[in-house]
Amino acid sequence: MPLNASVLGQALDEDLTVHTTLCRRDAPAFQRACRSSEELVVACTQESRLFTELSEQTEGAVAQDVRPIRFVNIRETGGWGREAKDATPKMAALLAAARLPDPEPVPTVTYRSSGRLLIVGPLEDAERIGAVVGDVLDVTILATGGRGQQERRFPVLGGELSAIQGWLGAFQVEWTTGNPIDLDLCTRCNACVAACPEGAIGLDYQIDLSRCSSHRACVKACEAVGAIDFQREAVAHTDNFDIVLDLRDAPAFAQHAHPQGYFHRPGGLSGDTGLQTIARLRDLVGEFEKPKFFNYKQKVCAHGRNETVGCDACVQVCSALAIRSDVNRQQIVVNPNLCVGCGACTTVCPTGALTYAYPRASEVGVRLRTVLATYAKAGGTDAALLLHSREGGAALIDELGRAAQLDKRQVRGVPARVIPLPLWHTASAGLDLWLTAFAYGAPQVWVLMTDEEAPQYRQALQEQMALAQAIVNGLGYTGTHFRLIEARSVTELDSQLAVPKAQGVKRRASYAVQAEKRATIELALDHLMQDSATLGQRAEAIALPAPSLFGAVAIDRDRCTLCLSCVSACPASALQDNAERPQLRFIEKNCVQCGLCATTCPEDAITLQPRLLLTEQRKQLRVLNEAEPFRCVRCSKPFGTLKGIENMLEKLSGHAMFQGEAAERLKMCGDCRVVDLYTNPGETRITDL
Known about the structure:
Helices cover about 30% and strands about 20% of the residues. The chain has 22 helices and 30 strands. The strands form eleven sheets. It has a five-stranded parallel beta sheet with strand order 6-5-4-10-11, covered by helices on one side. It has a four-stranded parallel beta sheet with strand order 20-19-21-22, sandwiched between helices. A three-stranded antiparallel beta sheet has the order 7-8-9, with no helix packed on it.
């Protein structure tokens, strides 16, 4: 592949030497670099194992736990392609990103497994798998038919599986036994199988009651052992397992992302997938850790107030069913053991109550800024960021690069301006990072999805991208800037990467991504509003599609009584009252369009208006509604609104308890109401009874 050491060196601020065969004849150059304490980046992922071993064998080499070797692919991502000669800026950007340090450590989630494995499925398949892993794992089988071996090598359970719950090291399995044959007593002598005239007993040693005609020849044959009893009642059982291998057609878990330690392999283990599953099963003994991928701040959560649900986007999008509603406590609850780290919940969260913790948004922001700044420094223009997963997405891009090397006439390969950037998960980056990448100088941001993502992720990202696209188009930038690319083959990906360019910013932003999602979005919007000011005439507000993270609320003043229940429900302090007089005030910048105000309003006087206001009024407090105060008929102190009190009097006018003096008392403030009760000689007191 073409390598321009001069341009790469200038962009990276270091002297570079081109090696033709670094992993073979030029290996001594790598060994010399291993002895240096400086950052070491190898632009080859194909021979990463060889380089790692060579470093370990090099005398005087710096230990990798002190100075790790970082590997980056610049070949399939750009060096092998029709536009390889123009890909130098992209190569520089990828090399610069590879030099960045690893994300800061975060709290971890621990799993402990002693290796107790439950295999659910046909007896012959389960016993065959058990024989392969039984030297490492403690195997138990829950049979669903099939033919067992004569030798009893593993405990075999029979019955109907009711439920499987939990995760690695903590699965709880429930099943019910109701078959006449007790497998604990059965000796597998086969006498019942031979005696049954209907052939209703198989070599799983369970009776098919739909075929049994009550001859009871089996009972007589089993008389000495006593394993068969047709009067036996169904019994529920519960047991705990560390790992579950499910060979049935339908999985025990309906969600897309199954819990850690649960493997669904319908039909058994065969081929490469079977070998990989067996290898993974054998490794699942001991203690394991994963990052705690999320942070949650209940204070700004818009899920619920006063037992009313507002935003439940995170609950709906979670493919692992790790998030549940706890509206009574005004919050959501995330199970860290079930969380798979996709980050989709943080992407759809309007307030930033859920944030992605590993890597942090600020660390991803540094990577974006480094990549795009280096790309520009090396002379690159019209960058298109291609965000992809580290597994399925990276594999498809590598396959595209290899195909382009073999046949450039049929396959273009990754274009020179397209910069692939891996994420832990494609759903973990959202509006804040997309707009930031655009402000940093990437006119286009694309997200690549393959078969590995859950269906709800696609809808969530499409909605977020429609919002981002409406914002930048409304600001005057022309073209398609945000796209969701769905590809399952090289040809699909190749065709979808060849798209027209789009208009980007004139001046690249320099702000840093903040820990708070809304703060980052505000910085991006401020920069884009200033940058787009010279693009021509634009409206005062941009209409946005729903669901939106921005917008206003419209108040029907004829229906609103200024009860201010919406103020107490608002989680973002967008709606506020006035301690001096009956007013409902609003700061549009704070509104997250969660809908809690509209749901809470007893008069149905509030509607949401998704939009982005471009004037300074967006950040200012403005009055949505105000009313004349109602004054106490006794002391003249204001204690409510005229409209609210009149509305209450009208609704209670026919109530038997609010007639005469009681009705007049409704027109008094709280203090005067108490005084009137105790000074009125006509009132009956408890001391008089």
